[in-house]
Design brief:
The complex is a heterodimer of chains A (112) and B (112). Helices cover 0% and strands 54% of the residues of chain A. Chain A contains no helices and 12 strands. In chain A, strands 2, 5, 6, 10, 11 and 12 form a 6-stranded mixed β-sheet that branches. In chain A, strands 3-9-8-7 form a 4-stranded antiparallel β-sheet, with no helix packed on it. Chain A is globular. The N and C termini of chain A lie far apart (41 Å). The chains are: A mainly beta (112), B mainly beta (112).
């Protein structure tokens, strides 16, 4: 069975600093990987996805993620965060049928 | 605006009461999903519908039923609400394959 582990439940960071949100997955088959963002009291919005091809994926709002098959990781990065990036971030893996399995979420808190 | 619409946005129920959460999408997506979100647990799949006329259980189906009324609408019913069903419920839809989901804005349900 597939599973997703987000290694940090909370990540505090100062504005304009770089950030990395860590995600590891387990799967015995080819996977499709996603990062979603949830702003307070809103639904989830797709940040980026890896389906195939280049292992470095660029998304919206300056975020990017790198697929590492050997380490079964899909970490999310941003070189310089803004206050407006404060949100909860979810990593997800898709099975062959298209259903998403989500990690527990990481709360990113950007401080001035 | 195109997307996924959920109603109601908020609801308070007494233990034992029943209710139906409504979800509609206007993107002509084949697949629809119901998730619940609880603190520290990410999103867990309750039920899904891969296509019109089919429904299947997800990870946490107990206490819920669903109806795929047509291609646009997918409702979630709580027959006898319990305090453990206090949660935020999200509906989502997707095209066939692994394109990711479009989420509704959620229903915050409290069972007292």
């Amino acid at each position: 069975a597939q599973s997703v582990t987000q290694l940090d439940s909370q990540v505090p960071v100062f504005e304009e600093a770089p950030v990395e949100l860590r995600c590891n997955y387990s799967s015995s088959v080819s996977v499709y990987l996603f990062w979603y963002v949830q702003y307070p009291n809103q639904g989830l919005q797709l940040l980026l996805k890896y389906l195939s091809g280049s292992t470095l994926v660029k998304g919206i709002n300056g975020f990017e993620a790198e697929f590492n098959k050997s380490q079964t990781s899909f970490h999310l990065r941003k070189p310089s965060v803004h206050i407006s990036d404060t949100a909860e971030y979810f990593c997800a893996v898709s099975d062959q049928g298209g259903k998403l399995i989500f990690g527990q979420g990481t709360e990113l808190s950007v401080k001035p | 605006n195109a997307g996924v619409t959920q109603t109601p946005k908020f609801q308070v129920l007494k233990t034992g009461q029943s209710m139906t959460l409504q979800c509609a999408q206007d993107m002509n997506h084949n697949s629809m999903y119901w998730y619940r979100q609880d603190p520290g647990m990410g999103l867990r799949l309750i039920y899904y519908s891969a296509s019109e006329g089919t429904t299947d259980k997800g990870e946490v189906p107990n206490g819920y039923n669903v109806s795929r009324l047509n291609k646009r609408e997918f409702s979630l019913r709580l027959e006898s609400a319990a305090p453990s069903q206090t949660s935020v419920y999200f509906c989502a839809s997707s095209r066939a394959g692994n394109y990711g989901y479009t989420f509704g804005s959620g229903t915050r349900l409290t069972v007292v």
